[in-house]
Amino acid sequence: MVLILCLLMTPYLIAVNGVEDNNSCTTVTEDGVIDLRPLANNDSSPRFMDVTKDKEATLRFSWNPCFNFDEQGCHQVELCELTPHFDLSYSLGNSTQASFIQDPSLGLVLAYNVSDIYDRRTSVIQLICDVNEEGSFKVVEDEPSQQYNFILRSKHCCPKTQSKRST
Fold first, then answer.
1. What residues does 33 pair with on adjacent strands?
2. 3-class SS at 157?
3. CA torsion sign, 2 to 59 to 81 to 87?
4. Whole-model pTM?
């Protein structure tokens, strides 16, 4: 079962044509530049804090694009999972574990891959362009034994064309 799960996650580990992976803040696609910096807090706090899948959910997630933060047991992360009663927390990624990827079914995603001696966790944030939304972060799948899935809906997910300098 573990081998199958790792094989299914492989597409999230490999960047594909059309995406130039610069860092966890910006990327250049065939359509233009995606820049998540306007959504980021740069004061060591998460922009999206303690987000749950629904009202009955026990897991909470905090995310800050571009800049690391500390919350509970998560230190120097961009994405953190907090368990019920905030007694445990897990790092779900920092900038060195992030990649922009063009997924065939989801479109452009920001994927975090974290491994330690005990566990391997993959988190995928689907980036949806919405010119009327500053930033909305939603939990789609929060099963710890599976891949974590999120959606970021924002005008900052819309590609912007690069201006060319005249010489």
1. 28, 160
2. helix
3. negative
4. 0.83
CB neighbourhood size of 17 (10 A): 6
For residue 52, what is the domain's CATH number? 2.70.130.10
Residue 8: its pLDDT value, please? 38
Structural contact between residues 80 and 62, judged by C-beta atoms closer than 8 angstroms: yes
CA distances from 58 to 9, 92, 112, 128 (A): 25, 17, 22, 26
pLDDT at 1: 33
Q: 26 lies in which domain range?
A: 2-157
Specify the number of domains making up the chain: 1
User: By the 8 A CB rule, do 45 and 80 touch?
Assistant: no
Residue 131 counted as domain residue: yes
pLDDT band at 43 (very low <50, low <70, confident <90, very high): very high
- Position 167 in a domain: no
pLDDT at 162 over 50: yes
